[in-house]
Hints:
Helices cover 49% and strands 13% of the residues. It contains 10 helices and 6 strands. The protein has helices spanning 12-23, 37-47, 63-71, 94-101, 113-124, 132-145, 161-171, 176-183, 187-201, 206-215, and strands spanning 3-8, 28-34, 51-55, 82-87, 105-108, 129-130. α1 (12-23) links the parallel β1 and β2.
Amino acid sequence: MTIKVIVVDDQAMVRAGFAALLDAQPDMEVVGEAENGARAIEISHARHPDVVVMDVRMPVLNGIDTTRQLMHPPANVEHVPRVLMLTTFDIDDYVYEAIRAGASGFLLKDALPADLVSAVRVVAGGEALLAPTVTRRMIEHFARSAPPRQKTAPRLAALTEREREVLVRVAQGLSNNEIAGALFITEQTVKSHVSRIIGKLGVRDRVQAVIAAYECGLVSATGT
Length: 224
């Protein structure tokens, strides 16, 4: 299956470089390039990409507002792509807003070419991806900013006790392998639990599940 990609960046050379790299992959096709968010939305609605690789800071319409519009298209548009955000700054508050807006991945622009290629595949496959230097900082941000709520929040009611245990560890930034070791279960079992958690919470991916864990009060800055 070919992964259809749109590359969005206001710097022409950067945009062309990313597009050339991705289009050279045997399982990818760059179906459009855009210099700003407004143009990206037009191309996305017309070409139906699987992944939009998008800069955060752009003129006309920035990456965050573009992501919001892509995640909530007009009634006559059914296609919703996945968004992989690229930025120069790993501590920028735009990161948190981008995740809330619905981005499925976040990668620094100085990442290796192979990392970008891998990130597109991960996001296209339905997984969420964050640069390692960002993951725990994002979690700490939501731990500080999320309002205190009861662990019996309606969104959590459908989760089993084991699923809650898994979600807590996902929210703590543990990988599937680390969760498997902590709970003495297989990594495949963890993947199955995470998939069910995402479905029951009605969220798009792992990152959105982490946000839900904090917003529902399952995890706080001081622990569970």
